[in-house]
Amino acid sequence: MRYVSGMRGSAMAVVVASVALAVAGCQPGAGGTDTGHGDVTPSGVADSAASSPTPGDPGPDSSVSNSSTPTASAPASSAPAPGGPAATCSAGSLKATARQAAVRPAGTGTGAAVVEFTNVSAQTCVLKGHPTVAGAANGSPELNVPLTVKPTGAATSVKVAPGGKAWVKLTFVQVQGEGDGYCVSGSAPVLYPTMVVGLPGSGAHQVALDDGQFAECDDTLTVTAVSAVRPA
Prior knowledge:
The structure is a single chain. The radius of gyration is 54 Å and the shape is elongated. The protein is of the alpha+beta class. It has helices at residues 2-26, 45-51, 62-67, and strands at residues 94-100, 112-119, 125-127, 132-137, 140-146, 148-152, 158-160, 165-173, 190-192, 194-198, 204-207, 214-224. 16% of the residues lie in helices and 31% in strands.
């Protein structure tokens, strides 16, 4: 009887040990791998890998920050700045008058005349250059006789404010003698009731002397450039 009881105790011990081994075989080991398959991933590793960015990966929100970065706008087309270069005076912005010059060649003709240009517009404008000159009758500019001009002095820009003035001086070949006079060259003196004075880019202006008419010789004269200083 003792023998039988000992056998039964041993058999129960073997069964219990077998069950314990079977249960242990169903649990992951300390390394997290199944010795029977070798492919089991440790619990939680896959989840943490999916939720954590890899080194150097800017993450899913980086594209948003890039797209929200403001970009520089294209520069606007340039416009003339206030106080910039003034435009050339138009013909309509000028009033021209003429008087006999105080300083002129000796003789009995006109000798020399100063032509004054007044800016009658509301805008500052610019005059520059030497004039052209033609002799003319009263109110008959189509009968102009172009005169040969000899420019003197350098041409510079003269800015003329509203109401401001600029000048040119015309010096003729002087008539000599009394009465109708004579020309040193031997040609006959010529008398013009008016002169047509043209300025580069600023039109042609017909002027009469405030005292007398234009008497000259040889249809040749010397002209100054436009000046901001009134000549004598």
